[in-house]
Amino acid sequence: MKAFIIERYGKKEIGRIADMPEPVLEEDDVLVDIHAAAVNVLDLKIRSGEFKLILPYRMPAILGHDVAGKVIRVGSHVQRFKPGDAVYARADDLRIGTFAEKIAVKESSLAHKPANLTMEEAASLPLVALTAWQVLVEIAKLERGQKVFIQAGSGGVGAIAIQLAKHLGAFVATTTSTDNIAWVKALGADLVIDYKKQDFESVLQDYDLVLNSQGNNELKNSLRILRRGGHLVSISGPPTPEFAVKQGLAWPLKQVLRLLSSGVRRKAKQLGITYTFLFMRADGAQLQNITSLIESGAMRPIVDRVFPFAATADALAYVATGRTKGKVVIKVR
User: Is the pTM of this model over 0.85?
Assistant: First the structure.
């Protein structure tokens, strides 16, 4: 099969399309004929080697985490899917590879595609929608009337998280650039801060939850806007000792992560704030809940551009500019 591969880690590694063996189907796997895949910042970070100590991929490696397509065949233990079903998923860690013609996905990570979406629209959702769900619903248990600050409202995660938070009944504040203010308000944000003109920490106070997706300065300043008892959830780091244990990392790496997060954990404790690092995971049951929200009209995908499979490297380069509105999708079929 054709696949977009990298042959080494590095910031100068671009990647290329090559012939690769078809996936091996395990008894609890579903083999998916890929129609579309989406590009995430995580793909860029894996390509550069940023996660090689936590997620060591064998080279050559096929990039890509999001997939939408149709079932080709299923393993002997699979019960919920059959050949011909339209499905979508976030592929499991260490089993990624959606920039390809086929992929084997665990049944537990797969969901039926929303009936009202195209393959390209569906492919844009899994990673960002599951991230939003795991932050807002699973970890923070966001309640009606609470105040949440979602950074980078025009980004892939931000655009979906705003919609989910509004569906849950929260008051939503976010940041974006001048050109995107009206667009982000249309997604449901109640308060939009132009980060080029104002610092969010000078505007916001007594918030219940922050979804941090930015750098260290934004992380520190987020602590200043939370009420005592509030929750800071970061998807951009630094990782915590709890994450290291969950990943089964070696003792030296656990100590490194403990040191990296010690500052924010100590400050959060002093302020009576809970700090959590989330490295989102594949989850078919949660994705099926998201399917219901999409089909009901409570949420909608945000697709910036669609690239042909032959231009996968260009799609990655576009995401690397940091100027996307929503998600970038690769049309495979």
Answer: yes
